[in-house]
Design a protein that fits this description.
This protein is α+β, with helices and mostly antiparallel strands and 257 residues long. The protein has one domain. It has six helices and twelve strands. The strands form three sheets. Strands 5-6-10-9-8 form a five-stranded mixed barrel, surrounded by four helices. It has a two-stranded antiparallel sheet with strand order 1-2. The chain is globular, with a radius of gyration of 18 Å. The termini are far apart.
Length: 257
């Protein structure tokens, strides 16, 4: 069972032994309970139906990883109509406040996350679930780095039920020195659309009809537009050695005491 910051609760339901095994692995990676007997009274229920292995079109060694990605993608699709979206970005916390560090792969999200000093805390270094509650508050949940579950990978576990209020989004750009550049809602929307697309290993519209695909894309776009309007967004130019977190604190008016 997955409980999110907006109060919704999601059930992962196994229809066969293969699905059950994948859900158990998913729960281990996300620190969720995998008690298949305690599913009563949920506000929102999500049913996961595992596709046949032959439809995944991956090498045998990658089937387990592909099932995890398939489940994560199916959840991401289910979140959208309820105000949630997976973004390709690291989640950092500063004294209970969340900041998204977004960038394509290889730009430095993991390196930047590993360099954060106290009181900063890295919650995830690759993907983040962002959602809006009924009061209009945006929240951020850490999400697993699925590439670590490839054959020979280090694996790991992330507390996906832990959430922080999201205060800003910073897009990372490698540079000789640190500086912060604010951007407008239009540019922020375009960059958020890219981040959402980058977060999906498999397309969110995979297996949907044309009408369903169109509706999901429109819902996702509207959600990202609302996020761009509500959230301060910046480009964070950072080097490999500079104290970029100080620039974040300065941009947001977070003074250390």
């Amino acid at each position: 069972m997955l409980t999110l910051a907006d109060g919704s609760q999601w059930v992962l339901h196994a229809t066969d032994d293969a699905a059950r095994e994948s859900i158990v692995q998913f729960c281990a990676a996300t620190r969720l309970r995998s008690d298949f007997s305690a599913w009563g009274g949920m506000r929102r229920a999500f049913t996961f139906v595992l596709c046949a292995e032959k439809s995944l079109e991956v090498a045998e060694d990658f089937v387990g990883w592909a099932h995890l990605i398939e489940l994560s993608t199916a959840l991401a699709r289910a979140f959208v109509p309820h105000g949630g979206v997976l973004l390709h970005g690291a989640l950092a916390e500063w004294e209970g406040r969340g900041v998204l560090l977004a960038a394509p792969g290889g730009t430095g999200k993991t390196t930047a996350s590993n360099r954060l000093p106290p009181p900063w805390r890295s919650l995830s270094d690759d993907m983040t679930l962002v959602l809006c509650d009924a009061q209009g508050q945006w929240w951020a949940h850490p999400w697993p780095t699925w590439s670590r579950f490839l054959p020979g990978g280090s694996g790991g576990a992330w507390d996906v039920q832990y959430a922080v209020p999201l205060h800003a989004i910073f897009y990372l750009a490698q540079a000789p020195e640190e500086r912060v550049e604010p951007i407008g809602a239009g540019q922020a929307t375009a960059m958020l659309v890219q981040s959402a697309e980058q977060a999906a290993y498999f397309s969110l519209t995979r297996g949907l009809s044309v009408e369903e695909s169109r509706a999901l894309r429109q819902q996702s776009f509207n959600l990202l537009c609302n996020l761009a309007q509500a959230m301060p967004t910046f480009v964070l130019h950072l080097s490999l050695t500079g104290a970029f977190w100080v620039e974040i604190e300065r941009a947001l008016g977070w003074n250390r005491e």
